[in-house]
Write a structure and sequence with these properties.
With about 450 residues, the protein is of the alpha+beta class. It has 18 helices and eight strands. It has helices at about 5-20, 25-40, 40-80, 85-90, 95-100, 100-110, 120-155, 155-160, 165-185, 190-195, 200-210, 210-225, 280-285, 305-310, 315-335, 350-365, 400-420, 430-440, and strands at about 235, 240-250, 250-255, 260-265, 275, 285-295, 375-380, 390-395. The chain has a five-stranded antiparallel sheet. Strands 6-8-7 form a three-stranded antiparallel sheet.
Length: about 450
């Protein structure tokens, strides 16, 4: 091929390319580029191939230096500094992702210096590298924002005001902008052409990002109204969630249940379904006991004077029995003053169940684990086929689960053990022992308490 003709071809191509700077790049342009390179001759193709090889080696070399030397040096420096937030940025891969931009920049700048390439090819490679730079930069910024969220979670205020949802919204916006910039670069269009087209795609975007938008609004309300925090114990029966909140993200809230499984609940569902948050219980400093002892109604009776004297020996009942006897004596004297027959139906008398109820009330009031400033009471509930419920209602000072269950068990262990002293019996369904007694068989004797054999 004649060199003069080659110069004429290059000149005509320059003119065509400069006149089509704002034209849309199409597959036909790629076919034209291939034809132009085939017309350049083997010498020009060899020159272009050698130049591309050198450019690739330089780009890889720069990437190696940045990622293996500079980034490694930054990691070592972060480990030696007294601050901890720089270690978080390293763990999030911020520097590693930022290093990916360097080879794209080298190719974008150096492609113009490679000889033997047509302007169309140079322009196309520069468009591709610009698109890659936009994507790599978006990934780096997204990693940095993830590091900011990780740093923020190290502070106590993050439990009350989590920002992970807002960070994820920013990451979505950044990736969306990066995709638009990449398409604008590849298609040789102004980014504003795509931004203005978003208005026409509003309906599609609302459909695609429906859950994200609903979750964003729900997340703002949950945070602003302080409804849920990380670490809260919540119950949400509609989703089978019963445990601690471990993560509040843009679209989901993760709950670790007490069986160590994890339930994922869409964030916007917290505004559509009811849920119970146990945080106020922990902040109030008292955890409620509301449990009943079912008494056998057949054991309820009046106390004899000997039984009253015996129960008066119990320290916490002495004052109650003295006051109650005085009150009953005065009332009986007034009731029997007009010649009313002195019989049991006409007299007030102490009952074993009433005395036991008074004992329970004074026992929980004097218990070291029961909160003295919160309500505590012992009350009778309506009799049922399972007996007479005697409900213990109080609050334990230690809200930790294990300590609470231990204190509750200690209270009921004592009350169940002391129950026979009042002539009462706990109601329970017939057992094998009951059936043996009903048919006249001798019941098995309980084994005495003894130490296990050595």
């Amino acid at each position: 091929m004649d060199p003069d003709n080659n110069d004429e071809l290059m000149t005509s191509t320059d003119v065509e390319t400069s006149g089509a700077t704002d034209a849309l790049y199409t597959p036909a342009d790629g076919a034209q580029t291939i034809r132009e390179h085939l017309e350049l001759g083997w010498e020009t193709l060899m020159e272009a191939s050698l130049g591309l090889l050198v450019l690739a080696v330089v780009a890889l070399g720069v990437h190696f230096i940045v990622s293996r030397v500079i980034v490694s040096a930054l990691k070592a420096l972060a480990e030696r500094t007294p601050t901890w937030w720089d270690n978080v940025l390293v763990e999030q891969g911020v520097f590693h992702r930022a290093a990916l931009i360097t080879p794209a920049v080298v190719v974008h700048v150096g492609i113009a210096a490679v000889g033997g390439l047509t302007p169309t090819t140079v322009d196309f490679v520069q468009r591709v590298t610009l698109a890659l730079i936009a994507i790599f930069a978006a990934r780096g910024v997204a990693s940095f924002l993830g590091g900011v969220n990780t740093i923020y979670t190290r502070y106590e205020s993050s439990r009350n005001r989590p920002i992970k949802g807002y960070i994820q919204v920013l990451q979505i916006i950044i990736y969306l902008v990066a995709v638009i910039l990449a398409f604008a670069a590849l298609m040789n269009r102004s980014p504003w052409f795509f931004f203005t087209g978003l208005g026409a795609m509003t309906a599609v975007l609302l459909l695609v990002f429906r859950d994200s938008l609903l979750s964003l609004v729900a997340g703002v309300q949950l945070t602003a109204n302080d409804l849920v925090r990380v670490g809260d114990w919540i119950e949400m029966p509609s989703f089978g969630a019963d445990g601690d909140v471990i993560d509040i993200a843009l679209n989901t809230v993760q709950v670790r249940n007490w069986d160590r499984t994890v339930t994922t609940v869409p964030t916007h569902k917290f505004l559509e379904h009811s849920f119970k948050n146990w945080r106020p219980m922990f902040e109030g400093g008292g955890r409620r006991i509301k449990r009943s002892i079912h008494l056998d109604v057949s054991t309820v009776r009046f106390l004899t004077q000997d039984e009253i004297d015996e129960l008066r020996r119990i320290r916490i009942l002495r004052e109650y029995i003295d006051a109650k006897e005085s009150e009953i004596r005065e009332q009986n004297e007034r009731a029997l003053a007009d010649g009313v027959p002195d019989c049991t139906p006409n007299r007030r008398m102490l009952t074993n169940v009433g005395t036991f109820r008074a004992y329970c009330q004074r026992y929980i009031e004097n218990h070291s684990m029961v909160h003295p400033e919160l309500i505590s009471m012992v009350r009778q509930l309506q009799p049922t086929p399972q007996g007479l419920p005697l409900e213990i209602y109080c609050f334990i000072k230690d809200t930790r689960w294990v300590m609470y269950e231990g204190a509750q068990s200690d209270i009921f262990d004592h009350l169940l053990a002391i129950l026979p002293s009042f002539g009462l019996r706990v109601f329970q369904e017939p057992t094998g022992v009951d059936m043996r007694e009903a048919f006249g068989a001798e019941p098995a004797k309980p084994r005495p308490v003894s130490a296990p054999p050595r």
